[in-house]
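**Backbone geometry record:**
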Amino acid sequence: MKLKTRSIIVAIVMLLLVNSNLAFAFTAYITKTGDGVVSVFDTSTNKVTATVNVGGSPWDIAINPAGTLVYVTKPGDGVISVIDTSTNTVTATVNVGGSPMGIAIGRFAISAYPPIPPTPTVTPRPTPVNPNEAVYAKQRAVISKMNITRPTPTPTTEAIPTTDVMKYIGNVIRDFVNAIFGGKI
């Protein structure tokens, strides 16, 4: 499969604004593989509010359950960049080796998943950032499908981090997003 020069991966952080009325604001973190940056996008205004230079070719994003840290895989460099959401700056770079493409966050650990060609199925091989902690996988199932207008380039993943795990995965080929629910972490 030929990879596009500019690949966009989106992760949406759900931040709860506390005031007299409860309201939700969404911030999307969009990786631009060809540019080596992560754009911070305010979904209420539909504008980019910051650009974080992570270098290399950022691929996938995951956000910790608290919404305070964004983890960005960079398969060409074998590292994960860590972005602080309060400052939108890279605060750490973790060398995990190999080519981390996918990333998953549990309550106690983070795992990066290398590509496993040429098989067409996904076979996660976790690379724990903290080898003293384990990640427990739960069965995931598609619970709904949402039609979207295809942006150019097309997003490949979106996620909302909460303790009730819901992940939205954009289909690169077709114009829809699958919502996957996996229960509590």
